[in-house]
Amino acid sequence: MAVSVISDSKASHSVTTVAKGSDIATGTIDSNSCTRVGNIVTASGRIHTMTNQDAGTHTYFVIPAGYRPSHQVRGFGFMSIDGVGFVPLLATINADGTVQMAYSSSQQCNQVGFAVTYAI
Q1: Can you tell me the distance from the alpha carbon of 96 to that of 71, in angstroms, rounded to the nearest whole number?
Q2: pLDDT tens digit string along 6-28?
Q3: Is 102 helix (H, G, I), strand (E, B) or coil?
Q4: 0.85 exceeded by the pTM?
Q5: For residue 79, which of 104, 42, 106 has the smallest C-alpha distance?
Q6: Which CATH number fits domain 15-119: 2.60.40.2460, 3.30.420.10, 2.60.40.10, 2.40.160.90?
Q7: Which of 1, 21, 43, 65 could be cross-linked to 59 through a Cys-Cys bond (beta carbons 3.0 to 4.6 Å apart)?
């Protein structure tokens, strides 16, 4: 079992933002933050008011270097699917910082979001 180190209040602390993925042409990103305390990272983001966006597998967000996991991790994700509503999804966070989610490419989504905490 892997060991995670939870740092104390004197540990290094840095904050940055998560970017919109290159697959996403429309929508406004907000609630996008990435915080690192010692070796613990918490990242989240939301894109709303997307238009003509299929809900298939896409890179919706990108976590910046220095905050990326060393291996693929999973987190909480959601999509607002046209005609369905909000759907909880698994968000995949890759070692290159890309955050991917998928519902169905035959459906349209107008909002996506994710949240994750992991050790690096």
Answers
A1: 9
A2: 555 556 889 999 999 988 999 99
A3: coil
A4: yes
A5: 104
A6: 2.60.40.2460
A7: 21
